[in-house]
Design a protein that fits this description.
The complex is a heterodimer.
Chain A: H1 3-46, E1 54-56, E2 59-61, H2 63-70, H3 72-86, H4 94-109, H5 121-144, H6 150-169, E3 174-175, H7 179-185, H8 193-210, H9 214-223, H10 225-230, H11 235-261, E4 263-264, H12 273-283, H13 295-315, H14 321-336, H15 338-364
Helix pairs in contact in A: 1-13, 2-13, 3-8, 3-11, 3-12, 3-13, 4-5, 4-6, 4-11, 5-6, 5-11, 7-11, 9-11, 12-13, 13-14
Chain B: E1 9-20, E2 23-34, E3 38-42, H1 49-56, E4 64-69, E5 72-73, H2 79-85, E6 87-90, H3 102-107, E7 113-114, E8 117-118, H4 120-132, H5 149-162, E9 167-171, H6 179-194, E10 198-202, H7 206-212, E11 215-220, E12 223-229, H8 235-243, H9 247-259, H10 270-275, E13 320-329, E14 333-341, E15 345-349, H11 356-364, E16 371-376, E17 379-381, H12 386-391, E18 394-397, H13 401-404, H14 412-424, H15 432-445, H16 462-475, E19 480-484, H17 492-507, E20 511-515, H18 519-525, E21 528-533, E22 536-542, H19 548-556
Parallel strand pairs in B: 3-10, 3-11, 6-9, 9-10, 15-20, 15-21, 18-19, 19-20
Antiparallel strand pairs in B: 1-2, 1-4, 4-5, 7-8, 11-12, 13-14, 13-16, 16-17, 21-22
Helix pairs in contact in B: 9-17, 14-15, 14-16
The chains are: A mainly alpha, B alpha/beta.
C-alpha cells in the first residue's frame, strides 16, 4: 500500500469506525429483540388487555408491569452471569445463593427464642448480601487460583448452598415481616420496587465495566486468556471479581424473590434459576465460550423468558408449559444462529425456484 | 522444460469476488491451475492469497464469479465437499490427530470395514502403500506425534492424495522444515507433478518458489496482477509486482536507514511516528518523566522507576538496563548471564528448540526462573507474572501471534490499547478519544491495512496482525522489547518494515532482543548475537565478528568457545 493510500485511509478511519461499532452492536441485539417483539405481538393478539396498564390505588398495574416485576430476579441474575460467561466461565450456584440469601435474612431477623439472631430485618438483609459476596469469593477463588473448572467449582456451592440454607431455617416456609420487607414487597410508590432495583444494578454494572477498563479486560480474557496474560491483564483478579459480583447479584435476586412472596424457603427459592439466567445471557448474544458481552442483550433475554412464562400461565395447561417453553427457546436459538438462517434461506430459495420452474413449465406446455 | 501447450487447465476461476465487511478481499480475480504443474500464488500480506485458497477449498463462499474443475462448474460449500471433488489442502499447521497412529490418521473418517468391523490389516497395508508413493517408509503403527513435523506433513499429504486429490494445495508447507526436509518435500512434489497432479504452492521463501514452481500468479490488494512462467519472471520483477514498487528502492532505503540518512518520503518512518507525538522523542523521556506519553497531565501513572537510559547510538558500551545472573529453569534453559544496554539490539540465534524462546519467556516472567535473578534499576527481582515485567518496562511479542498475541474477537483499537490499559490498572481508563487517537496513529504510522480501527483484528492478514501487536507494545513505550520471530510467515515488504522499525527504536534508546530463525535477518539487525544450542547459551558474537558463517560455526562447535559473561 502506498503512503498516500495509508494517509487517506487513516484520515477517514475514526468516523467509519464508529459506524462499524454501532452496526455490530445492533446486529447482535436484533434477533433477541425481534423474538421478544414477536412474542409480545402474539400476546397482544391472543390475550385480551395484555398491553393495558392502569393505575389502581396509586399503583401501576397490568400484565406488562407484572412481567417486569416477576422477571426482576432473572434480570438481576443475568447481569452478574453476563460477566461470568464473558470470561468463558459459568456459575451454577446462583439459584442456591438466592435461597441462601433469603434464609440468612430470615434467620437473622427471627427472635432469639426461635433460634434466630434477633436483629433488625434491615441488618439481616445486609448480612445476607455479605454472605452472598462470600459465596462469590469462594467460587472465584476456586476458579481463579485453585484452577478448578468453573462448572465443577460452582457445582459445589450449588449443592452446598441450598444445604446450608436448610440448616438455617429448615424445610418450612418462614414468613418475613418488618417495614423493609413490606417496602420491598409493596412500596408506597407508583412503580413496584423490583424493576427499580434491576435498573440500579444494571446501571451500576454498566458504569463499572464501561467507564473503567474492566469491561475491556473481561472481554480480552474471554477472547484469549493467554494473550491477555502476556499483555499484562490481571487474569486471576478479573476472574475472581466476576464471580464475586455474580454472587452479589444472586444475593440481591434472592432478596427480591423472597420479598415477592414474603416468605423465605430453602427449597423453592431460586430453584432452576441458574439455568434461566444462563439462557437469558446466551439469548442476549454473549457466547458461552466468552468474549464480547452485551448487558442490554442479557436483560432482553431475561424479559423474553419472563414474557414467555407469563404467556404460558395465561394460555397453556400447567402440565404442558415446560415442553412449550423448550420449543420457544429452541426457536429463538435457531433464529440467532447465522448458520441456520443461511441454510433455511437456501432451502426457501430452492423451493421457490422449483415452484417457478414448474410454473414456467406449465406456461410453456 | 516441458511444453506448456499440452497442459489443459484443470481448475479455472473467472472473476471471482469475495467481500468482507468493509473490505473487497478478492476483486474479480482470474486464476487457473493446469495438470502437471506447480503453481505459486504470491502476494504481500492482505493481497488475498489466503482468501483465494479459502474460496477454492470451500471454507468461504464466494460472492461472485465462476469456478470450474475439469470444465464443470463447482461451488464447494465446505473443505470436505472440495475434497470429494478432488481439491485437497495441506496447511502450515498439520491438521491431524497427534495421539493416533499414522495409519489411523490416514484413514480417519473413512475406515475400510469388513463384516462391519474395522479392517486393520487393510488399513495398515494401504497406509504403507500411500506413504510408499511418497518414497517414505515408516512404521505406520506408531503414534503420529513420535515423528518430526516434516514426516507429519508427509503423512498429511499422503492422506490428501489417498482421498484422490486432483488438485493439491500446499499452504506454507515449508515454514517449519529444515533444508533437507524441504528438499525431500520438493522431491515428492516433483513426483506428483510428473504423475499429472496440479499443485498450488504458497510460500514466502523466494528461493523455494524459484526452485520448484512452473508458474506464478501475483495478487496485490485483492486484485490479479498477472500470471507468469517462473522462468521468465526475474526476482526483482516479482517483488516489484507484489509490492507495486521496485525492490532496488527498498534496498537503498534500508541502507540509508542503517547509515542514519533517512529518506523523507518512504512509506513508514519513525520520524513520522515521533513527529506526531505517538512515540515520545528521545528528548522528552528522561529520568524526570518515566512513562513516556503515559505521563501526559491527565495520565499520571508512571509505574516504572526511573531508569538510566542513554539516548542511544553511541559506540561506547551502553549502560545496562537489565542484568540477568545465572537465570535458568530446569528442563527449559540452563542458567545464563546476560546484560542488555539501552539502545542495544541483541540477536538470539540457534536452531529450533535450542532455547531461544525459553530464554525470552524467563526474561518476561511467563515461566518462573528456578535459579538466578534479574536486576533492573539496581534491584534484584524474580518475575512470576508478565505484568511484573511489563511494569518495569519490558514488552514481548510472542512467536505464535494467533494463540498468544491477538484477541481475535476484539477490535484493532482494543488490541492496541490493551497493554497500556492493563498497566494503568483496573479503574483507570483512557478516554475513547485518546484510544482512537492512539489506534489511528499507529494504524497510519505502521501502515496497517484496514478500513477502520473498529475491525476485528481476526479479520486482518498475518502481517497486519503482527504490526498491530507491535503497536500494542510501542504504545506502552517499553525499555526492552523482546521480539520472538516477528517476521515469521509475513511477506518481504512487511519484513523490511519491521526490521527498519527495530533499527529506529534502538536509535531512540529502546533495547531489543530479536529472535529469528533467519540468520540473515539476525545478522542484519543485531549489535550482538547470542548463540544457543541444546537449551544453553554457547557463545556470543559482537560487531564485526557477526556473520552467518560465524553463527553457524558457533552452533556447530563441539564445546562453547566463549561463554557469555
Amino acid at each position: 500500500m502506498s503512503s498516500q493510500a495509508v494517509l487517506e485511509s487513516a484520515s477517514t478511519a475514526p468516523k467509519r469506525g464508529a459506524d462499524f461499532g454501532r452496526l455490530h452492536l445492533w446486529g447482535k441485539l436484533l434477533w433477541p429483540a425481534l423474538a421478544l417483539a414477536i412474542l409480545l405481538a402474539i400476546d397482544g393478539i391472543c390475550i385480551r388487555g395484555f398491553f393495558s396498564v392502569s393505575i389502581v390505588q396509586g399503583r401501576l398495574t397490568g400484565t406488562l408491569v407484572d412481567i417486569f416485576r416477576y422477571g426482576a430476579p432473572v434480570m438481576v441474575l443475568s447481569v452478574g452471569m453476563t460477566f461470568v460467561l464473558a470470561t468463558g466461565g459459568v456459575d451454577l450456584s446462583v439459584g442456591a445463593i438466592m435461597a441462601l440469601a433469603g434464609a440468612i435474612a430470615a434467620k437473622a431477623a427471627m427472635p432469639t427464642s426461635l433460634n434466630g439472631m434477633g436483629i433488625s430485618p434491615g441488618s439481616g438483609i445486609a448480612i445476607a448480601l455479605l454472605v452472598s459476596v462470600l459465596a462469590g469469593m469462594w467460587n472465584g477463588m476456586s476458579v481463579a487460583w485453585l484452577g478448578m473448572q468453573p462448572i465443577v467449582a460452582t457445582l459445589v456451592l450449588m449443592v452446598a448452598g441450598r444445604g446450608i440454607a436448610r440448616l438455617c431455617i429448615g424445610a418450612a416456609n418462614v414468613p418475613l415481616s418488618g417495614t423493609i420487607w413490606t417496602a420491598l414487597h409493596n412500596p408506597h410508590l407508583t412503580l413496584p420496587m423490583a424493576p427499580i432495583i434491576v435498573l440500579i444494578v444494571a446501571v451500576v454494572a454498566g458504569l463499572l465495566t464501561r467507564v473503567t477498563s474492566i469491561g475491556l479486560f473481561v472481554e480480552a480474557l474471554g477472547g484469549n486468556p493467554v494473550a491477555s496474560r502476556y499483555a499484562g491483564v490481571r487474569v486471576g483478579l478479573i476472574t475472581f471479581m466476576v464471580y464475586v459480583f455474580c454472587g452479589l447479584c444472586a444475593g440481591i435476586a434472592g432478596i427480591i424473590s423472597s420479598a415477592d412472596v414474603m416468605i423465605a424457603n430453602a427449597s423453592s427459592t431460586g430453584m432452576y434459576m441458574e439455568l434461566d439466567a444462563i439462557l437469558a445471557v446466551v439469548i442476549g448474544g454473549t457466547a458461552l465460550t466468552g468474549g464480547r458481552f452485551s448487558l442490554v442483550g442479557s436483560l432482553i433475554g431475561a424479559l423474553l423468558i419472563q414474557t414467555l412464562q407469563t404467556t404460558l400461565i395465561y394460555k397453556v395447561p400447567i402440565q404442558q408449559t415446560l415442553v412449550i417453553k423448550a420449543v420457544v427457546v429452541l426457536a429463538v436459538c435457531l433464529l440467532q444462529s447465522a448458520e441456520f438462517r443461511r441454510k433455511s434461506l437456501a432451502v426457501c430459495a430452492r423451493l421457490g425456484l422449483s415452484r417457478t420452474r414448474k410454473a414456467a413449465a406449465q406456461v410453456a406446455s | 522444460m516441458r511444453s506448456e501447450s499440452i497442459k489443459s487447465p484443470l481448475l479455472q476461476l473467472q472473476k471471482v469476488r469475495k467481500i468482507f465487511p468493509g473490505v473487497l478481499a478478492l476483486d474479480d480475480v482470474d486464476f487457473s491451475a493446469r495438470r502437471g504443474e506447480i503453481h505459486a500464488i504470491m502476494g504481500e500480506n492482505g493481497a488475498g492469497k489466503s482468501t483465494l485458497i479459502k474460496v477454492l477449498t470451500g471454507a468461504y463462499p464466494r460472492d461472485g464469479g465462476r469456478m470450474m474443475l475439469d470444465g464443470a462448474e463447482i461451488a464447494p460449500r465446505s473443505p470436505q465437499e472440495a475434497q470429494r471433488l478432488g481439491i485437497s489442502t495441506v496447511y502450515q499447521e498439520v491438521n491431524l490427530i497427534p495421539s493416533l497412529s499414522v495409519a489411523e490418521n490416514i484413514f480417519l473418517g473413512r475406515q475400510p470395514t469388513r463384516w462391519g468391523r474395522i479392517d486393520w490389516r487393510q488399513i495398515r497395508r494401504r497406509a504403507q502403500a500411500a506413504l510408499e508413493r511418497l518414497d517414505l517408509s515408516i512404521d505406520v503403527g506408531r503414534q503420529l506425534s513420535s515423528y518430526s513435523i516434516a514426516i507429519q506433513q508427509m503423512v498429511a499429504i499422503a492422506r490428501a492424495i489417498d482421498i484422490s486429490a486432483r488438485l493439491l494445495i500446499l499452504d506454507e508447507p515449508t515454514s517449519s522444515l529444515d533444508a533437507n526436509e524441504v528438499q525431500r518435500l520438493f522431491a515428492v512434489m516433483r513426483k506428483l507433478r510428473d504423475e499429472g497432479m496440479a499443485i498450488i504452492f504458497v510460500s514466502h521463501f523466494l528461493d523455494q518458489i524459484y526452485a520448484i514452481t512452473d508458474r506464478i500468479t501475483v495478487l496485490r490488494n485483492g486484485r490479479l496482477i498477472g500470471e507468469y512462467p517462473t522462468s521468465q519472471l526475474s526476482r526483482q520483477d516479482l517483488i516489484a509486482r507484489m509490492m507495486g514498487r521496485e525492490l532496488a528502492d527498498l534496498d537503498v532505503q534500508l541502507q540509508q536507514e542503517e547509515s542514519g540518512q533517512r529518506d523523507s518520503h518512504q512509506s513508514i518512518s519513525m520520524r513520522d511516528i515521533i513527529g506526531r507525538g505517538i512515540i515520545p522523542s528521545p528528548g522528552t523521556r528522561g529520568e524526570g518523566h518515566g512513562g513516556g506519553f503515559l505521563s501526559t497531565p491527565n495520565q499520571s501513572s508512571a509505574p516504572s522507576p526511573a531508569l538510566p537510559r542513554s539516548t542511544g547510538g553511541g559506540s561506547e558500551m551502553p549502560s545496562p538496563i537489565l542484568r540477568a545472573r545465572s537465570l535458568g529453569r530446569s528442563g527449559s534453559i540452563q542458567p545464563f548471564d546476560l546484560e542488555i544496554g539501552a539502545g542495544e539490539v541483541i540477536g538470539l540465534a540457534g536452531l529450533l528448540g535450542s532455547g531461544r524462546s525459553e530464554m525470552a519467556r524467563l526474561l518476561f516472567g511467563i515461566d518462573v526462573a528456578d535459579s538466578g535473578d534479574i536486576e533492573i534499576g539496581g534491584r534484584k527481582r524474580v518475575f512470576r507474572q508478565p505484568r511484573q515485567a511489563i511494569a518495569l518496562g519490558l514488552a514481548f511479542c510472542p512467536e505464535d501471534r494467533k494463540t498468544s498475541g491477538i484477541i481475535p474477537e476484539l477490535s484493532i483499537r482494543e488490541n492496541i490499547v490493551l497493554a497500556l490499559q492493563a498497566r494503568g490498572g483496573l479503574f483507570k481508563s483512557l478516554s475513547r478519544a485518546r484510544q482512537d487517537e492512539i489506534a489511528s496513529g499507529y494504524i497510519k504510522a505502521l501502515g496497517i491495512a484496514t478500513p477502520s480501527a473498529e475491525q476485528s483484528i481476526g479479520n486482518l492478514s498475518g502481517g497486519n496482525q503482527q504490526k498491530a501487536i507491535l503497536a500494542r507494545w510501542l504504545a506502552a513505550d517499553p525499555r526492552l522489547l523482546i521480539l520472538d520471530e516477528p517476521t515469521r510467515g509475513i511477506d518481504v515488504g512487511a519484513k523490511a518494515e519491521i526490521q527498519k522499525l527495530v533499527l529506529s527504536l534502538c536509535r531512540q534508546g529502546t533495547a531489543i532482543v530479536f529472535i529469528s530463525s533467519e540468520l540473515e535477518e539476525v545478522v542484519r539487525v543485531s549489535d550482538r548475537v547470542l548463540v544457543l544450542r541444546d537449551r544453553a547459551l554457547v557463545g556470543q558474537l559482537r560487531g564485526a565478528a557477526i556473520s552467518e558463517q560465524a553463527i553457524m560455526q558457533t552452533i556447530a562447535q563441539e564445546r562453547p568457545a566463549e561463554v557469555a559473561r
